[in-house]
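User: quick one, fold this
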Amino acid sequence: MALITISGYPCSGKSTRAEQLGKYFQKRLSEPGYDGPQLEVVIISDESSHVPRTTYDSSAQEKPGRASLFSNINRSLASDTITIVDSANYIKGFRYQMYCAAREAHARVATVHVIAPPEKCREWHEKRGGCSYKPATFENLIMRYEEPSSMVRWDSPLFSLPWDEDPPFKDIWNAIIKGDKKPPTSAVLQRNKRPPNTLQVLTQTTSQINASLLSHLNSFPESTTFPMPSPPAPSPQMLHLPPRRVNLSELQRLKRQFEAVQTKAQASGGVAASGTWTEGDVAIGYVRFLEQVWETGR
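Assistant:
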């Protein structure tokens, strides 16, 4: 039905806003004049996903933490659910992944940017006591924060909410109840009926691409592009790499995420990598997915 992403600095009041939104939605859904579908309001948080604050101390810990959060979000997305994601959500690539998952589930989306100055966040953080971040982690999260923008589709519609102002509850409600539902992205277009052995094709193709890419990086560690072999690509394709070293664990994580989205889509209506489940089309879909996550698409 809907996915609402809460984003902001650490200790900026995101959980408070998520709780306020949840209570407001439940109130609207229980009003006598409400004649829409029966909906459940679910808040997915780091805590509910068993992601402790120490997860953000290093990238090695953070990646599986985000995977756990993303898995819970995927399970929550349904036609009878309003999902509120109460987490840091400070990386625009991760917000894009959630946006793609929402479009796969034919859910409306909205982003709420909770705005508080760093000094106010520090003040609140110091009052937390034992459940706070490490000082270095807290400052790192502020420094690395990628602010949502209404100019990009995955953050829109965007509601910017200063910490000392009342939330625009009604506007957010209208966005998730009456707003447009975006069609799936080009990497996950609709297909009415899937052919047999789709899962085998999916896993074999992504595994082959990962293995070829790792072999390429071992031979050319400074490379910024990867010429895709054909097969599995139907024709010569160029994968643009991020300006850092991509390792095995990252590729395995992204492979699992891509396959999870495709498998869920297959079970709920046959949405595939690029409209079909052939080896070549899955390869193109996976390449597009990687470039979208890495923000390297040309």
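User: anything notable?
Assistant: The CA atoms of residues 225 and 240 lie 5 Å apart.
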